[in-house]
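Practice problem. Given the sequence and the SMILES for adenosine-5'-triphosphate, write out the predicted structure.
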Amino acid sequence: MTEPLLAVTGLRKAFGGVAAVDDVSFSVAAGEIVALIGPNGAGKSTCFNLINGQLAPDAGSVRLGGTAIGGAAPRAIARLGVGRTFQVAATFASMTVRENVQLALLAHAGAQHQIGRRATTALAAEADALLEQVRMARFADQGCATLAYGDAKRVELALALANAPRLLLMDEPTAGMSPNSRNRMMQLAADLARQTRVAVLFTEHDMDVVFGHADRVIVLDRGRIIAEGPPAAIRNEPRVRAVYLGDDEA
Amino acid sequence: MTLASLLAQLLNGLAGASSLFLVAAGLTLIFGVSRVVNFAHGSLYMLGAYVAWTSVAWFGRGPVGFWGGVLLATLVVAAIGALVESLLLRRIYAAPELLQLAATFGVVLIVRDLTLATWGAEDLLGPRAAGFAGVVDLFGRATPTYELLLIVVGPLVLAGLWWLLVRTRFGVQIRAATENRALVGALGINEARLFTQVFALGAGLAGLAGALQLPREPANLGMDLAIIAEAFVVTVVGGLGSITGAFLAALLIGLVKALCVVVGTVEFGGFAIAFPKLTLVAEFVVMAIVLAVRPYGLLGQPAVIPATTPVAEFRALIRPPGRRSLAAALALAAVAALLPFTGDEYRLILATDILVLAVFAASLQFLMGGGGMASFGHAAYFGLGAYGAALAFKHGAPMAFALAAAPAAALVGAVIFGWFCVRLSGVYLAMLTLAFAQIVWSIAFQWDAVTGGSNGLVGIWPAPLLADKRDYFWFVLTLAGAALAAIAWLAQTPLGYALRGSRDSALRAEALGIDVRRTQWMAFAIAGTFAGLAGGLHVFSKGSLSPETLAIPRSVDALVMVLLGGLNAIAGPLLGAAAFTLLQDGLARATDYWRAVLGAAILLIVLLAPMGIGGALQRLFARGAR
Ligand SMILES: Nc1ncnc2c1ncn2[C@@H]1O[C@H](COP(=O)(O)OP(=O)(O)OP(=O)(O)O)[C@@H](O)[C@H]1O
Ligand SMILES: [Mg+2]
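Answer key:
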């Protein structure tokens, strides 16, 4: 295989002397779905923040399709084709669901600073198509602030997809959903990834979702990778069971 | 320049730094615990000076009168602070920062008028400090002992606060509340009491500073806003919430100001630059450099970016205006166009004022409602426009060019100031905008040769074609109408949405490839330009202008209009400007204390109707439509 789409090497970030991410290296190939798991505070979200530019790494490199992106601004990294969802769903609260997606599409087209047309009539069909994809079409005219939490997560996915990403980062995409919706949501992301060869990196606390949809699992504990491999192997890895699955599977 | 004169100025600068530090320390302490920036902190400082003066008047100029007065001022002002906290601020801790700032400004207005009513409008000359009236010989120069005493007070208070914060249970509670809000409940701290105590402490420091200032400066009604602008600069430079930072910043600024005086007037390629007059500008340069390198001040912590805006008002769905709004606007414009035929000139003047102010308010609403950036110094752009037009006119430009100079001048200012402001957010941004406005004001006030200083400029009348009040009204109606329509349009465009998106969730906007800072910077430029246009229209309707045109109260007028009209209501600026103009006109005729009434009105809006008139109307219509 050629160079992986995302390659992270020796990544490190400390907050006030405590390393939240410590010498982390991994890679994700196009079309591959990788789960990043670990207990609370393991450093998963920090990893995401380092990859999408929200935080600058203390050390190490992040490469996207061969280009070094570590330390670049989030907007620049977004332009290179990295879409993300946040652990606490981040949508535009004062806009409708459709307007949210329209703004995302406008930004993707580089038209976010235009003043010659209305935003609400721009790219409406494309926006509706995306909402159809994430099964949010019937909420298109609803304000984003009033959505149920799981629905806000779906909108976020549509926003990330509006950017036509090569790499999709999803931080706890199914939090706040019922078990059924969880699987549907992940199935949706998985189908998309396989059809369009998007690389997906996601974090998740629900092990059924992880083992049901990931091609590969990376386990993080206190900022370090303690195991990596296909779901079946991870399930039986003793160190993983000790720090992470202990209560679940015993 | 001799070494001795340098030293004398340095000592003077350090003495000034002490009182500035006391005020800033209180401000920062209160902010750290309650997250409220207390605009009224300067008013507490002013009260300190007045109370000390009264003590001297009652008990004489001896130690009892003076030092007793210092103590009395500290205690009385602390008590007033506790009162303000428990009556007012306690009710608005959960409100958006913007409303909190507005509410504390309401307090400023009320305190100003109460002071006026109690002590009168005359400056009250203070005594020399008992026991420190003399001078000592320092490096061959007579140095007032009181200056030396003040220099010592700053570090003493810093040490005292350190001891308090590190060694006492109260201090532990303050630090816990400052560093981690959640800890307060977890540690079983009585939050309400802690907040009141901290507020009393901060207020007491302000009272102390005001009382100590009395021998250096007469007690006067301008003390409140003069010191608050400087205290904002100090807290922003030092880093909000950091007492040590405030100390360092006060020292830095005190020294830079002293250096300005020492340097004196310098010939610079044919230009004479009078540095002593540029002390406020020097503060600005210090602030600009510090913020460019450390956006959160010397010792401040960067704010954590929330996933979405925590401001409840900003979470409400905003619908684009429909055809009905357009029809209503056109109908209103048509009715307004008939106004000159009623023949009532006074009404025409009021209507012109309303239109001009509506544009001013709309420009602020664009920034504040759409962009979530509270500009507390919006008068700067209005004033730059007014001065730009007036100066162009005075230098022989025809009216059309002079009027075009207005938005141009304001645009330049907004681009420069905005560059710094968009690096910050929330209260930092608000304080910075205010500081910038103060700088523009001080330039207008001090640069006699060009701006006419405190007298301002006169004789700026429209071209003969528009000399008639009725013609000028139609002219303003056309331009203001176009400006209001343009601003309303901008909010509907992709740029307007990108701006609102940056307000709703900066994280999300950036993750979508939207450059939040650049978007906000553009908004600043746009808002400044329109405010400048309003300033230009204003000066030609009045025929004259003075530094008042860009003083703090004018910025607050804009805020009040936006709040009155509603932060996100499309008709808000017009409604707000109309309500404000008519209210002020009526009040000013009815009472000398209209400021206090206005302040009370602000408090009422904040407490009872945070959505403003426009918001209430919109809700009413929405209900009716359903
Ligand atoms: N901005 C920050 N400042 C200081 N410390 C931080 C910051 N962000 C994260 N941390 C710390 O870094 C560590 C890792 O946090 P992170 O959010 O990455 O964990 P996580 O694996 O995503 O946990 P969770 O499953 O709870 O979401 C934690 O100890 C956290 O407190
Ligand atoms: Mg996380």
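Check your answer against the key. The pocket of adenosine-5'-triphosphate (ligand 1) is lined by residues A 15, 20, 38, 40-46, 87 (CB under 6 Å).
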